[in-house]
Amino acid sequence: MGVMWGVLFRLFVGLFIGGAGVGIGIAIASTSEHLSALVFGLAFGIGGYAVGYLVAPFTARPLGWIKRRYIRVSDILPTENIVAASVGLAFALVLAALLAVPLSNLSGVWGDISPFIAAVILSLFFVPIMAVQGRPVLRFFFRTSPIASAQGDSSNDQIILDTSAIIDGRIADVVQTGFVQGTLVIPRFVLDELRHIADSSDLMRRTRGRRGLEMLNQLQRGSDVPVQISDADFLDTLEVDSKLVKLAKMLRCSIVSNDYNLGKAAELEGVRILNINELANALKPVVLPGEDLALRIVQEGKEPGQGVGFLDDGTMVVVENGRKYLNTDLSVAVTRVLQTSAGRMIFAQPKGHVEERAR
Protein backbone atom coordinates (compact mmCIF):
# COMPACT_ATOMS: atom_id res chain seq x y z
CA MET A 1 0.00 0.00 0.00
CA GLY A 2 2.85 2.40 0.82
CA VAL A 3 4.59 1.69 -2.52
CA MET A 4 1.36 2.29 -4.45
CA TRP A 5 0.76 5.65 -2.76
CA GLY A 6 4.38 6.59 -3.45
CA VAL A 7 3.96 5.91 -7.17
CA LEU A 8 0.67 7.81 -7.26
CA PHE A 9 2.29 10.77 -5.53
CA ARG A 10 5.14 10.75 -8.07
CA LEU A 11 2.62 10.69 -10.95
CA PHE A 12 0.62 13.55 -9.43
CA VAL A 13 3.68 15.77 -8.94
CA GLY A 14 4.97 14.87 -12.40
CA LEU A 15 1.66 15.71 -14.10
CA PHE A 16 1.39 18.96 -12.11
CA ILE A 17 4.86 20.19 -13.07
CA GLY A 18 4.45 18.81 -16.61
CA GLY A 19 1.23 20.79 -17.05
CA ALA A 20 3.01 23.92 -15.85
CA GLY A 21 5.78 23.14 -18.33
CA VAL A 22 3.30 22.96 -21.22
CA GLY A 23 1.99 26.41 -20.28
CA ILE A 24 5.51 27.83 -20.05
CA GLY A 25 6.49 26.31 -23.42
CA ILE A 26 3.44 27.74 -25.17
CA ALA A 27 4.06 31.15 -23.56
CA ILE A 28 7.66 31.15 -24.79
CA ALA A 29 6.64 30.09 -28.32
CA SER A 30 4.07 32.89 -28.48
CA THR A 31 6.83 35.49 -28.19
CA SER A 32 8.10 34.67 -31.67
CA GLU A 33 6.45 33.76 -34.98
CA HIS A 34 9.27 31.33 -35.81
CA LEU A 35 8.75 29.10 -32.76
CA SER A 36 6.29 26.21 -32.74
CA ALA A 37 3.88 26.25 -29.79
CA LEU A 38 3.26 22.49 -30.17
CA VAL A 39 6.95 21.59 -30.08
CA PHE A 40 7.79 23.89 -27.16
CA GLY A 41 4.67 22.80 -25.27
CA LEU A 42 5.50 19.08 -25.65
CA ALA A 43 9.18 19.59 -24.88
CA PHE A 44 8.58 21.60 -21.71
CA GLY A 45 5.70 19.31 -20.70
CA ILE A 46 7.76 16.11 -21.01
CA GLY A 47 10.72 17.74 -19.29
CA GLY A 48 8.53 19.05 -16.48
CA TYR A 49 6.92 15.64 -16.00
CA ALA A 50 10.35 13.95 -15.78
CA VAL A 51 11.63 16.51 -13.29
CA GLY A 52 8.46 16.26 -11.18
CA TYR A 53 8.56 12.45 -11.12
CA LEU A 54 12.18 12.50 -9.94
CA VAL A 55 11.92 15.23 -7.29
CA ALA A 56 8.56 14.07 -5.86
CA PRO A 57 10.13 12.04 -2.98
CA PHE A 58 12.14 15.10 -1.92
CA THR A 59 9.01 17.26 -1.82
CA ALA A 60 7.41 14.76 0.59
CA ARG A 61 10.18 15.18 3.18
CA PRO A 62 9.04 18.64 4.36
CA LEU A 63 5.52 17.24 4.79
CA GLY A 64 6.89 14.39 6.90
CA TRP A 65 8.90 16.87 8.98
CA ILE A 66 5.78 18.97 9.59
CA LYS A 67 3.83 15.84 10.58
CA ARG A 68 6.51 14.73 13.06
CA ARG A 69 6.68 18.20 14.62
CA TYR A 70 2.89 18.27 14.96
CA ILE A 71 2.89 14.88 16.69
CA ARG A 72 5.59 16.07 19.09
CA VAL A 73 3.68 19.26 19.90
CA SER A 74 0.41 17.32 20.35
CA ASP A 75 2.19 15.03 22.83
CA ILE A 76 3.32 18.00 24.92
CA LEU A 77 0.20 20.19 24.64
CA PRO A 78 -3.33 18.84 25.11
CA THR A 79 -5.59 19.06 22.06
CA GLU A 80 -7.76 21.76 23.63
CA ASN A 81 -4.71 24.04 24.02
CA ILE A 82 -3.86 23.61 20.33
CA VAL A 83 -7.46 24.43 19.36
CA ALA A 84 -7.41 27.47 21.66
CA ALA A 85 -4.17 28.65 20.00
CA SER A 86 -5.90 28.36 16.60
CA VAL A 87 -8.78 30.47 17.93
CA GLY A 88 -6.25 33.04 19.10
CA LEU A 89 -4.61 33.13 15.67
CA ALA A 90 -7.97 33.63 13.96
CA PHE A 91 -8.85 36.39 16.42
CA ALA A 92 -5.51 38.12 15.78
CA LEU A 93 -5.93 37.94 11.98
CA VAL A 94 -9.46 39.41 12.18
CA LEU A 95 -8.16 42.35 14.23
CA ALA A 96 -5.26 42.77 11.81
CA ALA A 97 -7.69 42.85 8.88
CA LEU A 98 -9.75 45.57 10.61
CA LEU A 99 -6.61 47.63 11.25
CA ALA A 100 -5.26 47.11 7.75
CA VAL A 101 -7.44 49.84 6.19
CA PRO A 102 -6.44 52.74 8.48
CA LEU A 103 -2.81 51.60 8.65
CA SER A 104 -2.53 51.41 4.85
CA ASN A 105 -3.35 55.13 4.65
CA LEU A 106 -0.07 56.02 6.36
CA SER A 107 2.34 57.91 4.19
CA GLY A 108 5.39 56.37 2.60
CA VAL A 109 6.64 52.87 3.11
CA TRP A 110 4.82 52.58 6.48
CA GLY A 111 1.54 52.33 4.64
CA ASP A 112 2.79 49.15 2.94
CA ILE A 113 4.45 47.35 5.85
CA SER A 114 2.43 48.46 8.90
CA PRO A 115 -0.53 46.06 8.23
CA PHE A 116 1.90 43.11 8.10
CA ILE A 117 3.70 44.25 11.27
CA ALA A 118 0.35 44.63 13.05
CA ALA A 119 -0.68 41.10 12.04
CA VAL A 120 2.60 39.62 13.37
CA ILE A 121 2.44 41.54 16.68
CA LEU A 122 -1.20 40.59 17.30
CA SER A 123 -0.49 36.93 16.49
CA LEU A 124 2.50 36.82 18.86
CA PHE A 125 0.32 38.38 21.55
CA PHE A 126 -2.91 36.36 21.27
CA VAL A 127 -1.66 32.88 20.29
CA PRO A 128 0.48 32.20 23.41
CA ILE A 129 -2.18 33.60 25.75
CA MET A 130 -4.92 31.45 24.21
CA ALA A 131 -2.67 28.36 24.15
CA VAL A 132 -1.85 28.66 27.86
CA GLN A 133 -5.48 29.19 28.92
CA GLY A 134 -6.83 26.30 26.85
CA ARG A 135 -10.13 25.14 28.30
CA PRO A 136 -11.31 28.54 29.68
CA VAL A 137 -10.91 29.99 26.18
CA LEU A 138 -13.02 27.24 24.61
CA ARG A 139 -15.66 27.63 27.29
CA PHE A 140 -15.81 31.38 26.66
CA PHE A 141 -16.30 31.02 22.93
CA PHE A 142 -18.33 27.79 22.83
CA ARG A 143 -20.01 27.93 26.29
CA THR A 144 -18.45 24.52 26.94
CA SER A 145 -15.27 22.85 25.82
CA PRO A 146 -16.22 20.40 23.03
CA ILE A 147 -13.01 18.48 23.56
CA ALA A 148 -13.50 18.27 27.31
CA SER A 149 -17.10 17.12 26.79
CA ALA A 150 -15.93 14.35 24.51
CA GLN A 151 -13.16 13.25 26.87
CA GLY A 152 -15.07 13.66 30.11
CA ASP A 153 -14.99 16.26 32.83
CA SER A 154 -11.59 15.24 34.21
CA SER A 155 -8.54 17.34 33.51
CA ASN A 156 -7.00 14.57 31.44
CA ASP A 157 -7.69 10.88 30.87
CA GLN A 158 -4.03 9.99 30.33
CA ILE A 159 -1.86 8.08 32.81
CA ILE A 160 1.94 8.01 32.56
CA LEU A 161 3.80 4.78 33.37
CA ASP A 162 7.31 5.00 34.74
CA THR A 163 10.06 2.37 34.57
CA SER A 164 9.43 0.90 38.03
CA ALA A 165 5.72 0.34 37.35
CA ILE A 166 6.47 -1.28 33.99
CA ILE A 167 9.07 -3.67 35.46
CA ASP A 168 6.78 -4.46 38.40
CA GLY A 169 4.22 -5.82 35.93
CA ARG A 170 1.14 -5.71 38.17
CA ILE A 171 -0.27 -2.75 36.24
CA ALA A 172 -1.07 -5.18 33.42
CA ASP A 173 -3.28 -7.21 35.78
CA VAL A 174 -4.95 -4.04 37.06
CA VAL A 175 -5.68 -2.95 33.48
CA GLN A 176 -7.23 -6.33 32.67
CA THR A 177 -9.74 -5.87 35.49
CA GLY A 178 -11.17 -2.78 33.78
CA PHE A 179 -10.52 -0.39 36.67
CA VAL A 180 -8.13 1.74 34.56
CA GLN A 181 -9.89 4.17 32.22
CA GLY A 182 -8.12 6.38 29.70
CA THR A 183 -4.85 6.13 27.81
CA LEU A 184 -1.57 4.72 29.14
CA VAL A 185 1.29 7.00 28.08
CA ILE A 186 4.80 5.53 27.76
CA PRO A 187 7.38 8.33 27.30
CA ARG A 188 10.13 7.59 24.79
CA PHE A 189 12.81 8.34 27.40
CA VAL A 190 11.30 5.68 29.68
CA LEU A 191 11.48 3.17 26.83
CA ASP A 192 15.13 4.09 26.28
CA GLU A 193 15.87 3.55 29.97
CA LEU A 194 14.06 0.20 29.87
CA ARG A 195 16.07 -0.93 26.84
CA HIS A 196 19.27 0.15 28.57
CA ILE A 197 18.35 -1.99 31.60
CA ALA A 198 17.48 -4.94 29.32
CA ASP A 199 20.95 -4.68 27.70
CA SER A 200 22.77 -4.50 31.04
CA SER A 201 25.68 -6.83 31.73
CA ASP A 202 24.19 -7.61 35.14
CA LEU A 203 21.96 -10.67 34.91
CA MET A 204 19.39 -9.44 37.44
CA ARG A 205 18.99 -6.03 35.77
CA ARG A 206 18.84 -7.63 32.34
CA THR A 207 16.08 -9.99 33.48
CA ARG A 208 14.08 -7.11 34.99
CA GLY A 209 14.42 -5.03 31.83
CA ARG A 210 13.30 -7.84 29.55
CA ARG A 211 10.33 -8.56 31.81
CA GLY A 212 9.33 -4.91 31.52
CA LEU A 213 9.50 -5.04 27.70
CA GLU A 214 7.40 -8.21 27.69
CA MET A 215 4.83 -6.53 29.92
CA LEU A 216 4.59 -3.61 27.48
CA ASN A 217 4.01 -6.02 24.59
CA GLN A 218 1.29 -7.70 26.64
CA LEU A 219 -0.40 -4.36 27.29
CA GLN A 220 -0.32 -3.38 23.60
CA ARG A 221 -1.61 -6.74 22.33
CA GLY A 222 -4.13 -7.89 24.90
CA SER A 223 -5.49 -4.76 26.57
CA ASP A 224 -8.62 -2.76 25.80
CA VAL A 225 -6.90 0.34 27.21
CA PRO A 226 -5.00 2.25 24.49
CA VAL A 227 -1.23 2.53 24.91
CA GLN A 228 0.46 5.63 23.47
CA ILE A 229 4.19 6.15 22.98
CA SER A 230 5.01 9.82 23.61
CA ASP A 231 7.96 11.45 21.85
CA ALA A 232 7.85 14.47 24.16
CA ASP A 233 11.23 15.10 25.73
CA PHE A 234 13.01 17.77 27.77
CA LEU A 235 16.53 18.15 26.48
CA ASP A 236 17.49 20.57 29.25
CA THR A 237 16.79 17.88 31.89
CA LEU A 238 18.91 14.76 32.33
CA GLU A 239 17.15 12.85 35.13
CA VAL A 240 14.27 10.62 34.05
CA ASP A 241 12.29 11.38 37.23
CA SER A 242 12.43 15.13 36.55
CA LYS A 243 11.31 14.55 32.96
CA LEU A 244 8.37 12.48 34.18
CA VAL A 245 7.24 15.22 36.57
CA LYS A 246 7.52 17.88 33.85
CA LEU A 247 5.58 15.75 31.36
CA ALA A 248 2.85 15.04 33.93
CA LYS A 249 2.51 18.75 34.66
CA MET A 250 2.21 19.53 30.95
CA LEU A 251 -0.33 16.79 30.29
CA ARG A 252 -2.06 17.45 33.64
CA CYS A 253 -2.22 13.77 34.46
CA SER A 254 -1.02 11.25 37.06
CA ILE A 255 2.03 8.97 37.13
CA VAL A 256 1.89 5.28 37.99
CA SER A 257 5.06 4.44 39.91
CA ASN A 258 6.51 2.39 42.76
CA ASP A 259 9.47 4.76 43.18
CA TYR A 260 9.41 6.35 46.64
CA ASN A 261 11.77 9.22 45.70
CA LEU A 262 9.76 10.04 42.58
CA GLY A 263 6.60 10.09 44.68
CA LYS A 264 8.06 12.66 47.08
CA ALA A 265 9.42 14.84 44.26
CA ALA A 266 6.11 14.70 42.40
CA GLU A 267 4.20 15.59 45.56
CA LEU A 268 6.26 18.77 45.93
CA GLU A 269 5.44 19.68 42.30
CA GLY A 270 1.71 19.04 42.75
CA VAL A 271 1.69 15.90 40.57
CA ARG A 272 -0.38 12.93 41.71
CA ILE A 273 1.38 9.56 42.03
CA LEU A 274 -0.56 6.28 41.79
CA ASN A 275 1.50 3.76 43.75
CA ILE A 276 0.90 0.08 42.96
CA ASN A 277 2.17 -1.00 46.40
CA GLU A 278 -0.31 1.29 48.13
CA LEU A 279 -3.08 -0.13 45.94
CA ALA A 280 -2.07 -3.69 46.85
CA ASN A 281 -2.04 -2.84 50.56
CA ALA A 282 -5.46 -1.22 50.31
CA LEU A 283 -6.90 -4.33 48.65
CA LYS A 284 -5.61 -6.76 51.27
CA PRO A 285 -8.43 -8.34 53.30
CA VAL A 286 -9.18 -6.64 56.60
CA VAL A 287 -8.20 -8.78 59.60
CA LEU A 288 -9.42 -7.81 63.07
CA PRO A 289 -8.10 -8.91 66.47
CA GLY A 290 -9.90 -12.02 67.66
CA GLU A 291 -10.37 -13.56 64.19
CA ASP A 292 -9.10 -17.06 63.43
CA LEU A 293 -6.67 -17.78 60.61
CA ALA A 294 -5.36 -20.97 59.10
CA LEU A 295 -1.76 -20.83 57.92
CA ARG A 296 1.46 -22.79 57.74
CA ILE A 297 4.45 -21.86 59.90
CA VAL A 298 7.32 -21.72 57.40
CA GLN A 299 10.18 -20.07 59.30
CA GLU A 300 11.39 -18.86 62.66
CA GLY A 301 10.77 -15.32 63.88
CA LYS A 302 13.28 -12.77 65.10
CA GLU A 303 12.31 -13.15 68.75
CA PRO A 304 12.74 -16.39 70.69
CA GLY A 305 9.84 -18.80 70.24
CA GLN A 306 8.25 -16.91 67.35
CA GLY A 307 7.11 -18.56 64.14
CA VAL A 308 6.27 -16.83 60.86
CA GLY A 309 3.64 -17.67 58.26
CA PHE A 310 2.17 -15.87 55.28
CA LEU A 311 -1.37 -15.37 54.00
CA ASP A 312 -2.27 -15.93 50.34
CA ASP A 313 -1.73 -12.24 49.54
CA GLY A 314 1.76 -12.27 51.07
CA THR A 315 0.88 -10.62 54.39
CA MET A 316 3.30 -11.70 57.14
CA VAL A 317 1.81 -13.29 60.26
CA VAL A 318 4.08 -13.45 63.34
CA VAL A 319 2.91 -16.23 65.67
CA GLU A 320 4.01 -16.04 69.30
CA ASN A 321 5.07 -19.45 70.65
CA GLY A 322 4.79 -20.76 67.09
CA ARG A 323 8.36 -21.93 66.60
CA LYS A 324 7.58 -25.47 67.76
CA TYR A 325 4.95 -25.73 64.99
CA LEU A 326 7.51 -25.13 62.22
CA ASN A 327 6.42 -26.66 58.86
CA THR A 328 2.99 -27.41 60.33
CA ASP A 329 -0.49 -26.16 59.36
CA LEU A 330 -1.90 -24.30 62.31
CA SER A 331 -5.04 -22.45 63.40
CA VAL A 332 -4.14 -19.14 65.05
CA ALA A 333 -6.04 -16.27 66.65
CA VAL A 334 -5.17 -12.69 65.71
CA THR A 335 -4.04 -10.57 68.67
CA ARG A 336 -3.18 -7.29 66.93
CA VAL A 337 -2.66 -5.78 63.48
CA LEU A 338 0.18 -3.35 62.76
CA GLN A 339 0.09 -1.10 59.65
CA THR A 340 3.52 0.07 58.51
CA SER A 341 4.86 1.92 55.46
CA ALA A 342 6.04 -1.43 54.10
CA GLY A 343 2.61 -3.02 54.48
CA ARG A 344 0.43 -4.76 57.03
CA MET A 345 1.85 -7.10 59.69
CA ILE A 346 -0.33 -9.42 61.78
CA PHE A 347 0.53 -10.80 65.20
CA ALA A 348 -1.20 -13.94 66.44
CA GLN A 349 -0.96 -16.88 68.83
CA PRO A 350 -1.82 -20.55 68.42
CA LYS A 351 -5.50 -20.88 69.08
CA GLY A 352 -4.98 -23.28 71.98
CA HIS A 353 -2.87 -20.73 73.91
CA VAL A 354 -5.57 -18.11 73.59
CA GLU A 355 -8.24 -20.48 74.88
CA GLU A 356 -6.06 -21.37 77.89
CA ARG A 357 -5.72 -17.66 78.79
CA ALA A 358 -9.51 -17.27 78.50
CA ARG A 359 -10.03 -20.08 80.99
What this model shows, in words?
With 359 residues, this protein is an alpha/beta fold. It has four domains: 2-76, no CATH class; 79-150, no CATH class; 158-281, 5'-nuclease (Rossmann fold); 285-358, OB fold (Dihydrolipoamide Acetyltransferase, E2P) (Beta Barrel). Helix content is 59%, strand content 15%. The chain has 14 helices and ten strands. A five-stranded parallel sheet has the order 3-2-1-4-5. The protein has a five-stranded mixed beta barrel with strand order 6-7-8-10-9. A hairpin with a 6-residue loop joins strand 6 and strand 7 (307-310). Helix 1 (2-29) crosses helix 2 (37-76), helix 3 (79-104) runs antiparallel to helix 4 (110-133) and helix 9 packs across helix 10. The radius of gyration is 34 Å and the shape is elongated. Mean pLDDT is 78; it is low at 143-155 and 353-359.
Name some characteristics of this structure:
alpha/beta, elongated, Rossmann fold
